[in-house]
Amino acid sequence: MKLERYALLTVTAALALAGAAVVVPGATPGFLPGETLLELTLWSTTLLFGATALVWVVLTYVVGQGYDAPPAEYGGDDVQVRILTIDAADVVQATVDSLPDELTDVHVVAEEPIDVDGATVHAVPDDFECEAVRKGRAIEWARRNVPCDREFVCYLDEDSVVGSWHGLPDADVVQLREQPRRTGSVLSYLADIYRMGVQLEQRAFARLQIPLFAWGGGIAVRSDLEDEVTWDRETIVEDTAFVWAAARDHDITFALAETTCRNEAPPSLGEILQQRRRWAAGNVRAASMLPARYRLLTRVRNYAWALSPIVTMVAVPLSLLGVSVVYGGLFVLASLTLAAFTAFWFLRGLAYYGEQALRWVVVLPLVPVVSLVHSMGTVAGILHPPEGFRVTEKVGPDR
Question: What pLDDT score does 18 carry?
C-alpha cells in the first residue's frame, strides 16, 4: 500500500508543479521546464493506462474468448441462501421476496434481531470472536453455526434482488452476475453502468489460475470448500479474499453464472466514493496472499485506476485555460485511443443492460466525468485507506 501511496503522491505533485509552471512560467523552481515535466508525467501515466487497457483486451478477447456460462446442474434443492445485513429489514425483505419458490432454505444473518417473512433470521452474538471483522465476521459465524446439508451456500448482499434465477453450474465458486439499479445519484448509476462494461473481463476468470476479483451481490461456494478455506481472515473485501485463499491453497474451478442480482447503485457521490475506497484499499491489502505475478498485476491495475482522475483533474483545467498539454501526433493518437477505450467500456455497459439503458447513450460526451466518479474512490483508498468495513447506504424498496 505504501508504494502506491508514495507513487500517487509523487505523480500528483509533479502534475501540480508542472501545471503551475505552464500557466505561470517561472512560478516554480526546478531543473526541468514546466512543459517538459508535464509532458513526461502525462506520457508516463498515458503509457501506464495503455498497458492496463492492453491487459484488459487480452483477458477479455483472448483468454476469455468464446466463454459461455456453463449449463446449470444444480437447482434450488442444492442451495442454501444466506443474506447478510446489519438491521435493514425492509431492504432484506425485498431481496427475500425476489427469490424463486425453488429456493426453500433461506437464512438472514444480521447484526441485530430483525423480522423477515420467508426466511430464518440469525443474529450474530456480540461475544462471538474470530480473526474476521464486520461482514466477514458475520459470514464466519454463519459458517460455524448455521447447519447446511446443501451442496452450495449462496451469499447475497441485503439489497441483491434476484432478477433471474437459472440454477448453478458445476463449479467450486460461482460468481453471480450483477446489474446495479438506480437509487439516487445519476452519476453513481452511470458509473456502475461503466463498471459493468469493464467487468466483461470476468468471463476470462474461469480460465485463470486465480480470479482477479470476486464482488459482492451474489457468490455461491461449495459448502465443503467453504469449511476448508473458511472466512476467518481480517479483510474488508471478504469475497475476493476468500476466492484468492481458495485458489491459492486448492485447485478450484470458477464459473460466471447466468443468474443476475439487481443490487442498488450507491445513492450519492459520497457513498460511491466510500464504496470504491473500501474496494481499492481492501484489494491492495489482500494482494499479499497472491503469487508474485498476480500480486503485481492486481496492484498495478489499482494504481492505474487511481491515477486516471488525477490526470483528468489537471489536464482538463489546463485545456480550459487554453494551455496545450498535447505534445505531437503520437501523444494525440495515444490519448484518443484511451478515450475510445473509456467510451467503449461505457457502451459495453449499456449493451449489458439492454434496451432499458439505451437512452443513456446521450451522455457519451460526459464519459470522462463518469469514469472520474468511478475512479475517485480508488484514489481515496490508496491515500487514506479505511480502518474498517463501512456498509454502503441502502435506499430500500420504497424509493
Answer: 62
